[in-house]
Design goal:
homodimer, alpha/beta, seven-stranded mixed β-sheet, 11 helices, globular, binds adenosine-5'-triphosphate, binds magnesium ion
Chain lengths: 257, 257
């Protein structure tokens, strides 16, 4: 029973990649077989795991455009017990190339069907926009979307547009699309911003915010430069603790273990 | 002699909006006539100046799609001595609507021709993507682009793609497109990340980084929730000082005063 969650929020820099990598790494530590899918042409998820986007032989571009099997494109990190379907610079052109293709919105969903039994969790990291790549991510989100929301004022502005887009995909492409939960990120207790954001998030997504809140913690920003998740880079940091709690909360809610 | 600069970087959350607003506010304090153009469907620049994107009568959407004169759409803030061409939710559909339009890449440039003599500086804030809206921003950047780069590892990944896109626009649409400068943002002296990023930026954009570096400062994140630039919200904060220095540096380099 593979669960597929998509990390989505068109606001930039809110912690989509950081959440995909670090939530994924803790799920893997808890014995789950995990695949991270990097749907962002910037390839931040790939580089967070030490993958050089310019050196990969195959990438998600080949799965979406050339319909190559995903199993031939994934890389496995033995040490982290994590797999990644990497991105590459070619993906930047995919949105334009897909426009006139058949089944352009369901390419990722169909591609992942091939590997479904192989993983317990598939986490899809999206770019900060609501174009065809993100729509592919929404249609592939079999078990729902996870929405990282930065605890800052400007991050609130986009929530209305995001819920509208989710509703449009639900009506036109995937009726069962649901919100699995909202992750509050970069929470800073020294300012009132965080508390104001939490109130607003509870208004937009009542009862859907995960209890685990991720604080602002510099170790989370340092870890990608070593190609490691924070669980391996700074396991006793506040950032690591928060993602460990989030992984436990997700597993509990999914009825695993 | 109106100078038009576009704030661009497809990496999300690096300080494009914060730089457009706060650089603009200090240029206005120094007596320049300033227009902020909000080219992001999230309308963060508009809300940072207290404009409600859902309540505006006309927006940049009308200038781009309905070819309404910009002068009929701008709002002027007397207290801040700043004008804004606001965004609206309708802009989210503009990228798709523009695809088959004539002169789709030069709509913004042509629209701004009407107000050129009215302002000394026009700063254009872009969304975190390299689609048609950002291309419009690049073509309209008469005097160059200003690239905010967050002093964190993941922000480095996208610099290569950005320079490629700038080069493609230069070849196909606007041969004089140049980089006016790179603004290093969210610099945190407690970690080596900042210094690593500075070295990389100097490699990608030799001698083009502004001397004024913007530190991470919570006041910059709080100011938008009051609809104020930091110059008005917390004028003696490190964030305010940095943007004041940046405005002075830009004016000096432009040979103004
Ligand atoms: N809780 C945190 N504390 C401190 N830094 C963080 C935290 N979460 C993420 N970061 C850092 O903030 C920056 C933005 O995070 P990240 O890149 O994960 O966001 P994103 O939503 O994926 O961005 P994009 O919209 O560009 O895809 C990165 O440099 C990351 O390392
Ligand atoms: N120097 C700084 N110190 C602290 N916070 C900052 C700083 N600069 C920006 N911020 C905050 O960081 C967040 C991201 O900044 P901002 O929204 O300006 O980036 P952006 O590049 O415009 O994002 P997007 O890609 O979504 O358009 C905002 O909440 C902003 O208030
Ligand atoms: Mg990301
Ligand atoms: Mg912005």
């Amino acid at each position: 029973m593979t669960r597929i969650y998509t990390l989505v929020n068109q606001k930039g820099g809110v912690g989509k990649t950081t959440t995909a990598i670090n939530l994924g790494a803790y799920l893997a530590r808890f014995g789950q077989r995990v695949l991270i899918v990097d749907l962002d042409p910037q390839a931040n998820a790939s580089s967070s795991l030490g993958v050089d986007k310019n050196a990969v032989e195959g990438s998600i571009y080949d799965a979406l455009i050339n319909e190559m099997p995903v199993s031939t494109l994934t890389l496995h990190n033995e040490r982290l017990n994590l797999s990644i379907l990497p991105s590459s610079p070619a993906l930047a052109g995919a949105e334009v190339e897909l426009v006139n293709e058949l089944a352009r919105e369901t390419r990722l969903k169909n591609a992942l069907d091939e590997v479904r039994g192989k993983y317990d969790y598939i986490l899809i990291d999206c770019p900060p926009s609501l174009g065809l790549l993100t729509v592919n991510g929404l249609v592939a989100a079999r078990d729902g979307v996870i929405i990282p929301v930065q605890c800052e004022y400007l991050a609130l502005e986009g929530l209305g547009q995001l819920t509208e887009t989710i509703e449009r995909v639900r009506v036109a492409l995937y009726p069962d699309l649901k919100v699995r939960g909202v992750v509050l990120t970069m929470f800073d207790s020294r300012t009132n911003l965080g508390n104001d954001v939490i109130k607003e998030v509870n208004r937009h997504f009542p009862k859907q915010a995960f209890h685990s809140i991720v604080p602002r913690n510099i170790r989370l920003a340092e870890a990608p430069s070593y190609g490691l998740p924070v669980a391996a880079y700074a396991p006793s940091s506040p950032g690591a603790y928060a993602y460990e709690m989030l992984a436990r909360e997700l597993l509990r809610g999914d009825g695993v273990k």
